[in-house]
Design a protein that fits this description.
homodimer; about 230 residues; alpha+beta; 4-stranded antiparallel beta sheet; 7 helices; about 20% strand; elongated; DNA-binding
Chain lengths: ~230, ~230
Amino acid sequence: MTKGTKPARTSRTRFDPVVFFATVAKGRAISKQRPKQVIFSQGDIADSVFYVKKGKVKVTVISKQGKEAVVAILGTGEFIGEGCLIGQPKRLATATTMTECETMRVDKAQIQSVLQSEPAFSKMFITHILSRNARVEADLVDQLFNSTEKRLARVLLLLANFGKEGRPEPVIAKISQEMLAEMIGTTRSRVSHFMNKFRQMGFIDYKRNLEIHSSLLSVILNEQPDDVRKSK
Amino acid sequence: MTKGTKPARTSRTRFDPVVFFATVAKGRAISKQRPKQVIFSQGDIADSVFYVKKGKVKVTVISKQGKEAVVAILGTGEFIGEGCLIGQPKRLATATTMTECETMRVDKAQIQSVLQSEPAFSKMFITHILSRNARVEADLVDQLFNSTEKRLARVLLLLANFGKEGRPEPVIAKISQEMLAEMIGTTRSRVSHFMNKFRQMGFIDYKRNLEIHSSLLSVILNEQPDDVRKSK
DNA sequence: CGAAAGCTGTTCAAAATTGACCACTTTCTA
DNA sequence: TAGAAAGTGGTCAATTTTGAACAGCTTTCG
């Protein structure tokens, strides 16, 4: 991913915020974090945006009743906390690293001025937000129509990188059923139930590692006859 | 860069896309629609963005199983179909007018070039997408942790404009239980059930018109005796 | 006017989901 | 290193939600 040197000409050129911000004097700070560190917490003053240079970060919200929900999982090259740019005074969610991470904090004022003065950055930023938007909308639609079973199959496939460029990574880093439940908005017992079902049907495997087979796709694609195995 | 004339100075200045696009020669078209007209359909080629000059538009998605879900309801001053800007080749949703509307269609290429050349427009556009993002995220969170009853109360309050600047409009335009069900992802029988409950409790009224009282807020705000401090 | 189409209120069995509980494993610590 | 604490996975009864009726009202329109 090391940006070349002479590009930046073509309109399709990747614009690297790190390189760019590195040329700016103030209002930014790069730092490294270990897994499970909190980048910002729900309720904090929202006066900056973070850029994920490397790693995975989860964004969660805690309800008044104390339930937790995973709103998004962001990776390399994505922004977090953009809400502050439309005047949200406080963080509405908590951002926590899931892996080793390298993040860059940029002051709200700083990013605003760059958005103003740098069309290339502005363009990249718009692309990023629109993508994010599309993803959240997809999650919402998923939530509105699909059963818990399909939602679970979907996040598992997404975690395994199905649909992305590179060959899918069939083995997923350790992830608890608890967290899966938070991601799809259900209870852990429901997750346990379907994980078993998937395993019995040979769609996934897990003992030590979690392996996702492409056959899991059938859960999402297939409609009707659930064949034989009736659960419950 | 033929900016207006003297405005555009203050950073908070309202930027009016209609006025702006009016100065541009090609790639735009304004039209008026009556209620229930389709602006674009799921599956159409996505090569333009629409700006709602006036009226309300609903954005819906139809699943493979034929179920319909309302993803968003957009109003005056908002954009629809921005997905095309990140390369979505086809419309993922259907946009339908709910009231008399006036909309402006702008070619993808056109809007892209303006985004490039006009920082003021670009800024306004970013603000719009970020707001949209925040709203969809709020919907997702709502869906992830609230019960059907609370979700229904929430959309009713939103429809009544609670939370917006002006005094809320307690009377809501006719809206069927069917559509409410699609908005919160449940069945009509459930909506009917809760609407009755709300009515019996005096939170809403409806015979001819639907009136929302502020007391409905209690459905969302009240928890049980929350003396129970949940600790983690 | 009268038929047809749309809504809404209700009911009910079937299906999905929750919440609490038990068992087992890993991690921490006295 | 034993024991406690925390994290995980599986099970089940109780509860909630769905989906598919059906009947009573309005609205629409020929």
